[in-house]
Amino acid sequence: MRRRFKKVIAGVLSLATVLSLTACGSSTEEQAPEVTTNEEFDPIVEHVQTLVDQVDSSINVEKKITWLSWWAIDETQATAELFKAVYGIPEEGNESYGKDANNIFEYKFVAYESRYDKLAQMVSTGNSPDMFQFELENYPYTVYKGMFQSIDGIIDTSTSDWDATRDVMEQFKWGGKNYCAITQVELNQVLWYRKSVIEKAGLQDPYELYMEGNWNWDTFTDMCNAFQLSGDSKYAVDGYKIPDYFVMSTGTPIIGLENGQLKCNLYEEDVERSINYISTLATENYRYPRHLLNNWSTSIPAFVAGDTLFYGDGTWLWKDTLKSYASRYKWEDNDIFFVPYPKDPEADVYYHGLRHSSYMLCAGSDNIEGYKAWIDCVITCVNDPGTKELSREQDKVNYDWTDEQLDFAEQLLTDLTPVFEFKQGIGSDVAPTNTIDNCVDSLIQYPYIQNEGQDISYTSLRATNEGQITARVNEMNASVS
Asked: Alpha-carbon distance 136 to 257, whole Å?
């Protein structure tokens, strides 16, 4: 029973209001993840009974929700159990659904790399799924291409349930319409570090600098310089999307979304200033030179060995990678800790790139009631203190999170002002992910890498790429003007 308890509660909106623990993966129909139910587990079933009266039971759910994705929704989580308690399992036991007969969802699995091709094909042929995972990297282009439909008139976001995310939803309106039922805003990228490495180098703990209100570009630069001088082959920072988060710390993304339309900020002083700062991480040799040392790959071993001071990545890095090193080398509790990216000294508030959780309603879905019911259950569980507490305690058991880590993560969601970067959302044809050579990523990645033989000044990169960027932005804006 103990093993089953850990499995079940781990699915209860795990760190739902604090940390995002999901990394990208790949799945096909043949490799579909196991989908589980929890009908015999009393504690979680009993808990959701206290939430039943908070859900709109008048919604008439007649069939399963079709979910197109590369991963399966855990049907043992509180949201799913609440759905079953209120609406039952649609068409339960219907053999036409095959292995999904006793699930809430009918799963359509797709390889991660093909997910949007598959979605576009299903929508265009009148065989639309009902629901799809929101991804900032492809928004609002996916709406522009007709893959999703507005939730206006479907989800009532005027109720108190949506108070915590209503302002963020305003930032995601496209053409004056809501497409994202944003149930929570989450901590995403952070700078991981080892306290013992900081102490050995004679540096002040970045967490202490943050709590003193003194964690900014200037103190970060001082720390980079001091660490580099502390030994041979020492680098200050490695990881993913480092330059993106420095740009966002100004509060001005390269491409924003304002008043329902995209806005190019290529000539904004904040953008130029931040990219000029990013270039110093390369010219001063603070960033780990992955293009020279590791075949363009980041290096966790260098971070673990104490040769790299900070490693930028998602909060999932603890569960997926770092906690195993902590256990293997018997490091002290909280030796591995994290801080947000340093504050722009000229910013009025602490801006930081965050992410949000949302399920998109696919264009052509014929199961609007099922979608409404699921979203109602999600937002109810997200706002429930009991569910949050269960999640926190079990994350400590399953993933070795400490109270100090969790407390700080919760504090950051209060302290930080979210900024969202839409530069990838102008279309994968002009801004593909996982490459630095596209028209928007090259603006910040080349200054950060400073590879030999490349013209890496921001002004020259902007001159080369702005025509393609502005043409696509103008094209998309014209569709909703």
From this structure: 12
